[in-house]
Write a structure and sequence with these properties.
Keywords: Coiled coil. The chain has five helices and no strands. It is mainly alpha-helical. It has two domains: about 90 residues; about 110 residues, Methane Monooxygenase Hydroxylase, Chain G, domain 1 (Up-down Bundle), CATH 1.20.58. It is about 90% helix and about 0% strand. It is rod-shaped.
Length: about 200
C-alpha cells in the first residue's frame, strides 16, 4: 500500500499486515508438516511441535480476522451513521423547500395584487386628467382601492412575519419592501381622495 493509503487507514493496514504475516507463518508450518519425514522419534516430536505451532498460528489468525472485522464493522457503523444524518438532512431540505415554495407562492400572489392595484391607480389618475368625472365617483373608486391596498399591505406584513419566523430572511425583506411600497401608494391615494373631497379626510 502507498504511504497515502496507510495514513488514511492505519487500523486496516495494521490488521491486514498482521493477517498476511500470520498466513506466511501458517503456510511455512503447513509446508513442513506436509513434507517432513516421520521415520524417527525426533521426527515425530518435531511434527508434534509443528502441529502445536500451527494450532497457535490458527488462533492468532482468527484473532487478527476478528480485529479486521472490527475495523470493517466500525467503518460500516460510521457509514450508516453518516447516511442517517444525510437522510435526515435530505428530509429537512424537502420540508424547507415546501415552506419556501409556499411563501414564494404567497409573495407572487401579493405581487399580482399590487400590480393590479397599480394599474387601477393609473387608470384613476388618467380619469382625473381626461374628461370631467364626478368627484363622488372617483372618491368611491379610490375608497375601494384604498381598502384593497390596506388588505394587501396587511397580508404583506403577515407574510414578512411568517417568513422571518421560518428564517427565510430574503422573502421577509422583500415582503416588507412590498408593504412599504403599498403604504406609500396608500398615502398618495389618501391625499388624492382628500384633494377631491377634503370632507372625507
Amino acid at each position: 500500500m502507498s504511504k497515502r493509503q496507510q495514513s488514511e487507514s492505519p487500523e486496516l493496514v495494521a490488521a491486514a499486515a498482521a493477517i498476511e504475516e500470520e498466513l506466511r507463518r501458517f503456510e511455512s508450518l503447513a509446508q513442513e508438516i506436509r513434507t517432513g519425514p516421520l521415520r524417527a522419534q525426533k521426527h515425530l516430536e518435531k511434527m508434534g511441535h509443528l502441529l502445536n505451532s500451527v494450532a497457535d498460528c490458527d488462533e492468532r489468525l482468527v484473532a487478527h480476522m476478528r480485529s479486521l472485522l472490527g475495523v470493517l464493522n466500525g467503518w460500516r457503523d460510521r457509514q450508516q451513521a453518516l447516511a442517517a444524518e444525510v437522510n435526515s438532512r435530505a428530509q429537512e431540505l424537502q420540508a424547507r423547500t415546501r415552506v419556501y415554495q409556499s411563501l414564494m407562492e404567497r409573495f407572487a400572489g401579493l405581487g399580482q395584487e399590487a400590480g393590479s392595484l397599480s394599474a387601477t391607480m393609473q387608470g384613476l389618475a388618467g380619469r382625473t386628467q381626461g374628461e370631467p368625472v364626478k368627484p363622488e365617483e372617483l372618491i368611491s373608486s379610490l375608497q375601494g382601492v384604498n381598502e384593497r391596498m390596506a388588505r394587501v399591505a396587511e397580508s404583506a406584513q403577515t407574510l414578512a412575519n411568517d417568513a422571518r419566523e421560518q428564517d427565510f430572511v430574503d422573502i421577509s425583506r422583500d415582503a416588507e419592501s412590498l408593504r412599504q411600497q403599498l403604504l406609500a401608494a396608500l398615502n398618495r391615494a389618501n391625499l388624492l381622495q382628500q384633494k377631491l373631497h377634503p370632507a372625507n379626510a
